[in-house]
Give the backbone structure.
Amino acid sequence: MILVNYLAAGALFGTGLYVLLTRRNLIKIVMGLSLMEASTYLFMVSLAYRAGSTAPVLLSPPAGKTARQLAHGNVADPVLQNFCLTAVVIGVAVTAVFLSVVVRVAQHYRTLDADRVRAMRG
Amino acid sequence: MTRTGIDADRAPARAVYREATEREPRHRVWAGALLAAGFAAALGVAVAGIPREHAPLPLIARYALDIAIPRWKLTEPVNEIVYGTRGFDTFGETFLLLAAVISVVVITRPREPRRGYFGEAAAGAREQEQDDPAVGADATEQEARSAERLEQEDQAQKSEHPVETPDAVPLGTPAPERAEAMTVVVRTAIRVALPILAVAGLYLVVWGYSPGGGFPGGAVMLGVLLLVYAAFGRRKISRVIRPDLLENLELAGAGLIIMTAFLGLAFQGSFSANWLPLAQLMTPLSGGVAQLFSASELIEVATGLAIAVFALLGISHDWARDEDRNSSGDGEQGQ
């Protein structure tokens, strides 16, 4: 039942969204964004899953099978695994940018509370 | 009201002013919960209708599996997709990573010109001395300054009692107050694990016909650097972790990726097409240009992540003066 994974990813995204909407601590906002990011990883890896499939590796096919048969057989989706790989790297980089902005905000305004950061009040 | 708020209210005499007090108001809890739950429910309804584990593979996935061996001589379709079929995507991602690293460097840079990630505070001491006396300092400010001075004198103190390596200190010696290296147990363990990790990281890239590639390899290399930093202190890695070296390496990696992709356009008439001879199946060079791309990605990711992490670790104590200090509260009266 891969649907459970899909729903878990949706719930994880909702949790991140809840954190973003209700918290004003900048670190917690970054954590909420990371949760939302993580939900997309779970979603993409779950989307790649196929029932009873093997990993998309043609390295050493099981006895009696050629790599070509394996490529046409039941394997997990390699394209979505590629997307996940991409997303993880971008996630790390974006989190680093967020955190460095948070450190500078804390140093400049002496608070981590987004409500007390005057420039963000609009 | 949160616990920190209560504590601060109980002891107003002790706390002359509160520095970056954490106040945790929960705004719009019900509205937030409702919206988040509604969005999650909408997502749930949306994902209920998408293909599940019994659906056939999408055409692009089947295509990539199909051409991995004949066209790229790669037995690892994920690598073939990352550096081949969807190479343009990876190309864009590389520069997204580069943009993020540049943003971190720009945001975290100190006011004075930088040479290293650490110890830059000493370089700015003259400016600080010029700036501070006119403003005057209260007790807390003086405390903060003396702490900073202690930190700066750390360097000088170390050179008075030169210790070649943390291992030269006999066992049983009380640890220095600001220990830079970790205990002998951790150092020994990391000495053993380090070469294994470093080789594993390179293996992930070189053996590109099996799962791995430049992205995980680069992350492993960052792990190696961070382990050395954690176990032996920053002076041990200061010869390698220098902004000029890392940043040039990073740009060299980016240049290599641009070259790899554009030479495909020049030789084969298609951006990021393979222009290298393909070696035999299941050898390190079997992927052709995919392996070159992967190796450049290793440089790019390892140095990029290292720059971002060490820029954050070495961020200077560049605090603004606290304007609210003499006002009655912690800035809440305006609300």
About this structure: Residues 1-15, 327-335 of chain B have pLDDT under 50 and may be disordered. Residues 1 and 26 of chain B are 9 Å apart (CA to CA). Chain B is about 60% helix and 0% strand. The radius of gyration of chain B is 27 Å.
